Amino acid sequence: MNPLSYFYHLSISIVLVRSVDVLDNKIEIEKNCRERNRLITSAEGDIFMLVDAIPGQKITLQCHYCAENDDQQPKIWYKMKAQRNSKPEEVNLGMDFNVTHNRVRVTIEHSLIIRNVTINDTGFYYCIGLEGQESANKYSYLIDVVFDNGTNPETGNMTKWRQYHEEYFEPVNQMFKNSQSEEVVYVREKLFLSIEVVTEWEHWGPCEVCGRPPGEGRRHKKGFCRIKLTPTANISVTTARSDEESILLDVYELSCRSLIFERVFPSISQDLKYLPHFVQIERCDGLCNPDAEGLSKGWKSGKRGGFKYRKSYVLAQSDHLVLICPESTLLSTVIWHRNGQVLKPGQIVQAGSDEEPRIIVDTFNTLYLHDVTSEEDGNYTCQVDNVNMQQIDIFVVSKSRILTQAFVRHMLYLAFVLSLTFSCYCAGLFITWKKRSNFKTYEDLLMEKGEKIYVADSDYSEIYSDED
Questions:
Q1: Is residue 326 a contact partner of residue 390, using CB atoms and an 8 Å limit?
Q2: Span 342-365, pLDDT tens digits
Q3: pTM of this prediction?
Q4: How many domains does the chain have?
Q5: Which of 73, 101, 172, 403 is 20 to 30 A distant from 339 in Cα terms?
Q6: Is residue 89 part of a domain?
């Protein structure tokens, strides 16, 4: 292949990789990353992050912390079946020129993508830099291929979760302690493992307030059903009967629906794989943020931000504001939203039955806020031809608060000026007093000008002059 042809194919491959990365951003992919500030119960509990993968699913393992960007340093992905009886091997990536045909590939941000996950993908995955720069950071995962039981998660508050735990988990945990079945006895006496079903919580999601009444926001936190494996004695992995069993001796937890666990202990798995997950729901307060709540997918393909423009206004009560969506024309289709609800052109949002309207959208897609009160603050967004163009946060406060803050601010300025002036005045007086011997007296000044000086005495008065 001549050099010109080589660089041509190389440029085409780079374009294909970037185009596929953009396509992956549009397609719903199970993305996994590690939190920088995560809760660590023990050193063993931070060795890897457990990733549930359903057969046929596409997953992504990121080689950087969540909400952070890749440092653009070269990195390599390694895989291990088990940690103690196998050596890390470099992940076999697809080599097809058309990257869309590769089942396993790495993105330009060094994220590992696996399509059509199978049980053979089970194992430990590590992202290591060529210069060992990730030795202090743990970008390590355990892919656990799970059984899709189709059950819906239980939902509710913490009280509901306690009932859920007593109903689903307590009977199974008692069975692990007291059962004399062959598999349970083998786990306790041969593998020296203590099994317990627990809930592993993920982080809270955003406060969802768009389209909800004030004070009725909701946030969710998902709890996964996990098999906690605790060794009760030291045992060598060489005693394991299979590779799947050696994995059980290397991990501290697995999914309740784990296919590896089902292969080794099918009877125990039968009691676990149909246990539902739990989603905790609680009330929260906040402002409507369509980006955080997933109501908008970005103002342009490939952009991370939800809206092209962002503004915020602080208005005093009874103020007025006119908002025009940027980059819009008379031929554009403009849609205004307030806290996630559509404001139609020509629509008048009535504040009350006996009050004048405070929110008006005219036929030219201009938004008017008239005589605002605290009821009108919130999140306002506009779209131009289905493009998320602008997001505006409006805060309404009382005039007394604004005037008080302005008065306090100006009093602070005045106090600073007065303190500076007084300090300079006192410093001048002190310097003058220290150098008082260098100053001439009134008599000395008159003598220099040749003027007469009148000196009064108690008995007589004489007149002196320079001419005498």
A1: yes
A2: 887 766 665 555 566 788 888 888
A3: 0.60
A4: 3
A5: 403
A6: yes
